[in-house]
């Protein structure tokens, strides 16, 4: 059993989130600011495939419109320190329309229309969590500050071309992230996997130590199967049973 992780205070998101969409002089690895993640992912970022990924992205950020903005690429990690992770919500890839992607799965910045899948998440929350009120925005940063890692399996996408970076190497990287969380976390982690794509990641996780919640995706195409899943209250129940503070899902 690994040594018990010490919780660390999160950093204010206003100090982490930047808005530059150009690669500039910063390397891909330098965008990962959080010490805990740096410690556990340092060797992974030295792998050949990660170097090839960086070369490809460096070129494309200079010549194409790629989301999220370069400086927000690792927002999920920088806003939720490794030692604070208690829930993982896995998405597939970033939103691909203008202004939507902010480096957090399912989340959009203030002032951007709430996407359909997130609207359906809110619908479920209103019936699952007593007192939840649907917000007028789609910014989920508050969840990240409580230990909810909003992780996309692929961290970048070309504008208006969904899943265009699925074969770039990101999924090898994020599979490793999921495995590290599962193997090196000394406390129970709740993994929320929505849809068949996310369900396939279950093989990376130790179900004997952690809680895995699998449901349909909140997309309008599968909302009738997603509705009533109670995944948010189930996550809190699992955390409470492990002596971990539950998530305040209100926004």
What key phrases describe this protein's structure?
disordered N terminus, alpha/beta, globular, four-stranded parallel beta sheet, 6 strands, 251 residues, single chain
Write the layout of secondary structure elements.
Layout: H1 13-16, H2 35-41, H3 48-63, E1 66-67, H4 75-79, E2 87-91, H5 116-128, H6 141-144, E3 148-152, E4 157-158, H7 170-184, E5 190-194, H8 195-199, E6 211-215, H9 223-226, H10 231-241
Parallel strand pairs: 2-3, 2-5, 5-6
Antiparallel strand pairs: 1-4
Would you give an account of this structure?
By secondary structure, this protein is α/β, with parallel strands linked by helices. 33% of the residues lie in helices and 10% in strands. The protein contains ten helices and six strands, in the order H-H-H-E-H-E-H-H-E-E-H-E-H-E-H-H. It has helices spanning 13-16, 35-41, 48-63, 75-79, 116-128, 141-144, 170-184, 195-199, 223-226, 231-241; strands at 66-67, 87-91, 148-152, 157-158, 190-194, 211-215. Strands 3-2-5-6 form a four-stranded parallel β-sheet. The longest helix has 16 residues, at 48-63. It is globular, with a radius of gyration of 17 Å. The N and C termini lie far apart (36 Å).
